[in-house]
Amino acid sequence: MPDVLFEIRNQVAHLTLNRPDKLNAFNRSMAMELQDQLLACDEDDSVRAVLLTGSGRAFCSGQDLSEFPADRLPDFEKVIDEYYNPVIRLLKTIRKPVICAVNGVAAGAGANIALACDIVVAVSSASFVQAFSKIGLIPDCAGTFFLPRLVGLQKATALMMLGDKISAAEAERMGMIYAWFEEADFEEKTNQLAAILAKLPTAALILTRKALLESSTNNLEEQLELEKKFQQKAGHTRDFMEGVSAFLQKRIPLFTGK
Ligand code: T3D
Predict the structure, then answer these.
(1) What integer best gives the mean pLDDT of the chain?
(2) What are residue 76's DSSP bridge partners?
(3) In whole angstroms, what is the distance from residue 244 CA to residue 73 CA?
(4) Are the beta carbons of 186 and 123 closer than 8 angstroms?
(5) Considering only CA atoms, which residue is closest to atom 18 of ligand 1?
(6) Nearest CA residue ID for atom 50, ligand 1
(7) Are strands 12-17 and 4-9 parallel, antiparallel or unpaired?
(8) What is the pLDDT of residue 112?
(9) What strands, in cross-sheet order, belong to the sheet with 58-60?
(10) DSSP string, 157-208
(11) What is the pLDDT of residues 197-209, one digit of tens each?
(12) Residue 76 alpha carbon, nearest atom of ligand 1
């Protein structure tokens, strides 16, 4: 059985972390499979959106703690270079929008991989734990980059130092995630959101992600220049022509992602 299930339905690639007995804890094969699948989604023109979720009662409990070597010190630099940083880089460079459907607890690297996705939604029973401090580690998977930008430095510091378990509703209230849905609606509403994303002008969405990311280091003048450059690119896509034609003809646009 693969550690990450992969299925394309209606132009949406469904990637499901699949080690439910360990709450979808990350090991080497899961990290490698996830990287391969994200790369495949990037290259496959038939994929217009990616939906990342977990199987069973958890989204992901972070690094598999039973896989640390008992007889020597762990080489975290190697593990982070091989497992986690490539995943975060792919999530931020893949040319498709990525929605994360947090179907249960998201802890450690699991929480921060979720936060690196473009849009994060959660089921009402889900929770988020910056579990690192509890085992003497620091938050990785770009958590120290994204969490303070989402919730502010004070909240991020407290959540990361204390390792509090945050409910889906609290996470939404503090701006950590986009929305939460009741259990009964979760799958349907998440799929609806993915279907909407899959029909939008993909290139413009990816330029939007890039502009937002770069805004964290740019000054205002640099950001204005970047928006100008990206708008020129978006304006030269077929989807822009289609969007304007559809508006003028009072019909729904049929974007192709080109
Ligand atoms: O490698 C590096 O480069 C370092 C990078 C590290 C990145 C990280 O992610 S560090 C943080 C690692 N994750 C954690 O510390 C979280 C550990 N898990 C928990 O705190 C809790 O399990 C949860 C809060 C996630 C859920 O709690 P609960 O009560 O719902 O479930 P549970 O009973 O604790 O867990 C159920 C089973 O899953 C249990 O196994 P068992 O007893 O039924 O055989 C438990 O051991 C297993 N499990 C949960 N998390 C992990 C795990 N097994 C291995 N690794 C885990 N991370």
Answers:
(1) 97
(2) none
(3) 59
(4) yes
(5) 61
(6) 61
(7) antiparallel
(8) 98
(9) 58-60, 105-107, 127-129, 165-167
(10) HHHHHH--EEEHHHHHHTTSSSEEE-HHHHHHHHHHHHHHHHTS-HHHHHHH
(11) 999 999 999 999 9
(12) 3
pLDDT at 54: 98
70 pLDDT band (50/70/90 cuts)? confident
Nearest Cα to Cα of residue 61 among 100, 22, 28: 22
Query: Which atom of ligand 1 is found nearest the CA of 109?
Result: 9
Residue 156 Cα to ligand 1 midpoint, Å, equals 21
Residue from 38, 70, 181, 184 nearest 121 by CA: 181
CA-proximal residue: ligand 1, atom 31 (nearest): 23
Can you read off the two tokens belonging to residue 34?
């996830």
**Residue 140 in 3-state DSSP?**
coil
- Distance from residue 92's CA to the centre of ligand 1 (Å): 26
* Residues 174-201 pLDDT 10s: 999 999 999 999 999 999 999 999 999 9
**Ligand 1 atom closest to residue 105's alpha carbon, by position in its atom list:** 25
Which residue lies with its CA nearest to atom 19 of ligand 1? 61
How much is the pLDDT for 239? Answer: 98
At 112-135, the pLDDT tens digits run 999 999 999 999 999 999 999 999
Specify the pLDDT at position 87.
98
Residues with CB under 6 A from ligand 1: 22-23, 25, 61-66, 76, 79-80, 105, 107-109, 129, 131-132, 135, 137, 140
Which of 30, 61, 128 should be mutated for ligand 1, with most atoms under 8 A from CB?
61
Q: Report how far ligand 1's centroid is from the alpha carbon of 247 (Å).
A: 50
**Residue 253's pLDDT is what?**
97
Asked whether the beta carbons of 83 and 110 are under 8 A apart, the reply is no
